[in-house]
Amino acid sequence: MPATPLPAPRRLLTVHSSTGEQVILDETTPYPTNDEHLKAFVGYIQPDAIGKPNKALEWAENRPVGKISHDDQTSLRWVDIPPQYKGAQHYTNTFDYVIVTHGELELILPDGQTKIVKVGDAVVQAANIHAWNNNTDEWARFVGVVVPSEPATVNGKTLDRPPFNGYLAQF
């Protein structure tokens, strides 16, 4: 798959240092994934549930460990989806706050419902099964903030059980 033609993501972090200086880190997101099928960048990983300003500079150096899905940490990510891409149905135990910044995507639910998501649209995914398709001839990108959540349950069963038999993505 060719490299994405979209501009490199850029992360800016503003924080006060421990000595009271205002610090701005301004850099292109330094952590692309190595997956050849999914072009993604992780811009920030916060391991604690509550933000801690005194840890922000330290956390800015956190790197993803072989994946972009962090069910146990809050993370910021960019995902670039190539033209004519057909995504696999999956879920994560996270709330995903997604905003499309380039192109157009199709959100597909396991019961066949679909929604076209365009630039500026926001999607909140509450630990549900879904897939993303790019049915166009242009690259698409979404930016997401991903927050850990409890597993979703239906009639007392988690999504990896019948009737859903969902795939818990750990990518």
Structure characterization notes:
The protein has 171 residues and is mostly beta strands. The protein has 1 helix and 13 strands, in the order E-E-E-H-E-E-E-E-E-E-E-E-E-E. The strands form 4 sheets. A 5-stranded antiparallel beta sheet has the order 3-4-11-6-9, with no helix packed on it. 22% of the residues are buried. The model has no long low-confidence stretch (mean pLDDT 89). This is Cupin type-2 domain-containing protein. InterPro entries: Cupin_2, OryJ/VirC-like, RmlC-like_jellyroll, RmlC_Cupin_sf. Residues 78-144 form the Cupin type-2 domain.
Beta-strand share of residues? 35-45%
Query: How many DSSP helices?
Result: 1
Mean pLDDT: 89
Secondary-structure element sequence?
Answer: EEEHEEEEEEEEEE
Q: Write out the strand line-up for the largest beta sheet, numbering strands in chain order.
A: 3-4-11-6-9
Q: What is the makeup of the main sheet?
A: 5 strands, antiparallel
Number of strands: 13
Pfam family, one: Cupin_2
Protein name: Cupin type-2 domain-containing protein
Domain Cupin type-2: 78-144
InterPro entries: Cupin_2, OryJ/VirC-like, RmlC-like_jellyroll, RmlC_Cupin_sf
